[in-house]
Design goal:
Blueprint (H helix, E strand, L loop, with lengths): L1 H15 L5 H44 L7 H15 L6 E10 L4 E10 L7 H6 L12 E11 L10 E9 L15
Antiparallel strand pairs: 1-2, 1-3, 3-4
Protein name: TadE-like protein
Keywords: Membrane, Transmembrane, Transmembrane helix
């Protein structure tokens, strides 16, 4: 009981005491404030990079949706270069572009073609049908352009955010042509 009374008196005196040293308080609080500042910067930078990747992905999808001519390997290579430039990524960017059609009779997507760069494999019918729940509702024989992008993000400081790949995907319908055609025999 006596210890409890002494503890209460000490805490009451400590709570009402207004004397102290600003230098001592600064030494106690400064490391915490510095860590909060670094953590805020790192988390903001991660959200910024994710936003940049989303915009770059949608830009590529929009470019492809406006294409009326057949695309080929060099076109896909330039899309990877464009993504690397727009995403301002220091690591090698990966990209996969796929064109698929919805078949109402089979209730499944049929892949027209898929091309990938940067170490990603091309998509298969099974891959795109595994993503069917994430795709928009389409009418019979409607085609879509699926753009998937990956870039590696490494935080500048260790504040609880791990290194990871930022994955984005966008689905676009062709605008000026019924489908985006792959040129299998470029000149």
């Amino acid at each position: 009981m006596r210890i409890l009374d002494r503890t209460k008196r000490f805490l009451r005196r400590f709570g009402t005491d207004t004397e102290g040293s600003v230098a001592l308080e600064s030494v106690i609080v400064a490391p915490f404030l510095f860590w909060v500042f670094l953590a805020s910067y790192v988390y903001f930078d991660a959200y910024r990079q994710t936003s940049v990747n989303i915009k770059a992905n949608y830009t590529i999808g929009d470019l492809l949706s406006r294409e009326t001519e057949a695309v080929n390997d060099s076109y896909i290579d330039s899309m990877q270069s464009l993504f690397t430039f727009l995403a301002k990524t220091n690591s090698s960017a990966r990209i996969r572009i796929s064109v698929a059609m919805w078949d109402e009779e089979d209730a499944a997507f049929k892949l027209d073609w898929s091309e990938a760069r940067g170490g990603v494999v091309a998509m298969t019918d099974g891959d795109i049908n595994a993503m069917a729940s994430e795709m928009p509702t389409l009418i019979d024989n409607e085609r879509i352009i699926l753009v998937e992008t990956w870039s590696h993000y490494k935080p500048l400081f260790e504040v609880g955010l791990n290194e990871s790949d930022i994955y984005e995907k966008s689905v676009t319908s062709p605008r000026f042509a019924p489908q985006l055609v792959w040129d299998r025999y470029p000149i």
